Amino acid sequence: MDQSIQFDLDLIHRYDKSGPRYTSYPTALELHEGFGEAEYLKHIEKSNAAGGPLSLYFHIPFCDTVCFYCACNKIVTKNRSHSVPYLDNLVREIEMQGDLFDGSRPVNQLHWGGGTPTFLNFEQMQRLMDATRRHFNLRSDDGGEYSIEVDPRETNDRTIAQLRELGFNRISLGLQDFDPAVQAAVNRLQSKEQTFAVLEAARAEGFRSTNIDLIYGLPLQTETSFADTLDQVLAYAPDRFSIFNYAHMPSRFKTQRQIDEADLPPPSVKLDILQMIGRKLTDAGYVYIGMDHFAKPDDLLAVAQREGKLYRNFQGYSTHSDCDLIGFGITSIGRVGDAYIQNVKELDPYAARISQGRLAVFRGVELDDDDKLRRAVITQLICHFELSFAVIEREFSIRFAHYFAPELEHLRVMQGDGLLSLDDDGVQVLPAGRLLIRNICMVFDKYLAQKQQQFSRVI
């Protein structure tokens, strides 16, 4: 499989507009409060009837300090006791949800995100994992993908050993940038020694996959400074990179108002950084998975992509398309059967619902036939850079050329621009189009016109 990318400045300038990241289709903006607990229960019943493995996501919202760039749902506090009532409610939610799902269904994927999951101490993390194991069928053979996001500033060798003992075998380290001026501008001071000590400890403890998170487009970044950060990380050769484009949206995310907009690199510099990232990582032997992700060729993401088994969910690229996803904690989003479901976003409503013995669901959406069809199309494009019309036609009993006649006209324009090749059999995204895969997917998004202003820019 050709997974190369081509950097075409003219195309990027012409196609750089706002659009979804397609961790779902329809996107989370289509979730509504007309879908609640009763509707969720119906989809759980259908899910149990269908069977299959599960994926669990736990949202731990607490952070010790605020990173100014952050757009996550988090609670910034140095008072560790604030996690105690939240953990109590989380355990009760695990019990309630566990009673609803068939206990024989194996959990093939588990992820703790946030916030900062390592805000919890070991006893709290052990309690959370023990509760999960009591109410769900966690694997005991270390064959699942059990991952956690960690902050190297508050993680050490002992923490890593404890996480491995709890059953985690994949780890993602937040970094963003090593440059001292950039770190000061975003209020995240983090040394090389802290970061690489955690990475090495994870390898020593037998974690099967290590990921480093970086962000380009932060204040005071230059191509040279970010290249230096990238070179230092490449020397330790993590299995995966997640390199995100910073989306400055202070009207939506209050913490971003503390960033001086005058310090943000101009678009031309961001494009220089992006081009440098692609060159360095591919020269170092990494495969471009898509969007912001690179991986070693033998990493499960790269293998799944080559085998046509890659999927995309609310945590990003995934190798487990067969799993229904259950979300726990505030703001978490799940996918069960043909529905997406989100929990309430704040602590007090979450605590109130759990104390009443109610699920924390406050909105969701049930996919109709057109949604499922378009989701399949977008998933194939964003995960595999190709689309077979025959596969879609067999699965959904349509004639692609008739159903998507207007969309094909848009694709023909993109073909003329060199983003893709289009024939009677399907679509192949070309190297120049892979960085712009979101634009290609947007052609098939029927909801986009009225919502586009609420998304970040593609590049």
UniProtKB/TrEMBL annotation:
> What compartments host this protein?
Cytoplasm
Record key words, sorted: 4Fe-4S, Cytoplasm, Iron, Iron-sulfur, Metal-binding, Oxidoreductase, Porphyrin biosynthesis, S-adenosyl-L-methionine
Cofactor stoichiometry and binding remark: Binds 1 [4Fe-4S] cluster. The cluster is coordinated with 3 cysteines and an exchangeable S-adenosyl-L-methionine.
Query: For this protein, what reaction is catalysed?
Result: coproporphyrinogen III + 2 S-adenosyl-L-methionine = protoporphyrinogen IX + 2 5'-deoxyadenosine + 2 L-methionine + 2 CO2
One MF term in the entry's GO annotations: coproporphyrinogen dehydrogenase activity
| Residues annotated as signal peptide | none
Q: What is its EC number?
A: 1.3.98.3
Keyword Metal-binding in the entry? The reply is yes
Sites binding S-adenosyl-L-methionine 1 sit at: Y57, G114, E149, I333
Q: Which GO terms describe its cellular component?
A: cytoplasm
Q: Name the needed cofactors.
A: [4Fe-4S] cluster
Q: Which family does it belong to?
A: Belongs to the anaerobic coproporphyrinogen-III oxidase family.
Query: Would you tell me the protein name for this molecule?
Result: Coproporphyrinogen-III oxidase
Origin organism is Methylomonas koyamae
